[in-house]
Design brief:
Low-confidence stretches: none
Radius of gyration: 18 Å
Distance between the termini: 51 Å
Strand order of the largest sheet: 1-2
Largest sheet: 2 strands, parallel
Order of helices and strands: HHHHEHEHH
Mean pLDDT: 89
Helix content: 55-70%
Oligomer: single chain
Number of helices: 7
Number of domains: 2
């Protein structure tokens, strides 16, 4: 869609899938009012640089060796039950057994934007548990 010149439509679809159909209402309270326009203006960078870079990035078991003694929290939004998300969660737990997996129901992919209070609460709990372990 972006490559057909439909920048606004492509950005709209992407943000809807990441935040939800009511994204304009959600971001109006926490992000700059011109966020959508900024995203459209920077669409080329996003679709031609950032997304390809994300697709080429890999994280493997070998790379976890330096993290084996590092506390890890994985917070997942489970608005949509996706098999691949659960598989990634299980793989992360396998590679980094100290991972604390937690989730927020009815939260989309961008849960730090849509469910900020819940994310903060879970991170606080995580840090409190880490302090108690020490």
């Amino acid at each position: 869609m972006y490559d057909k010149g439909q920048k606004k439509e492509a950005i709209d679809i992407f943000i809807k899938s990441a935040i939800g159909t009511n994204y304009k209402e959600i971001i109006a309270n926490i992000l700059p009012s011109n966020l959508f326009e900024l995203a459209v203006a920077d669409a080329k960078t996003f679709f031609h640089e950032e997304i390809p870079s994300m697709r080429s990035w890999t994280f493997t078991k070998i790379q976890t060796k330096d993290l084996l003694n590092t506390p890890v929290i994985h917070i997942r939004g489970i608005q949509k039950a996706r098999k691949i998300s659960k598989e990634r969660e299980e793989l992360l737990k396998y590679w980094l057994p100290q991972t604390v997996n937690t989730s927020i129901s009815n939260a989309p992919h961008m849960l730090q934007i849509t469910n900020t209070k819940e994310v903060i609460h879970l991170i606080k709990l995580f840090f409190q548990q880490q302090i108690n372990i020490l």
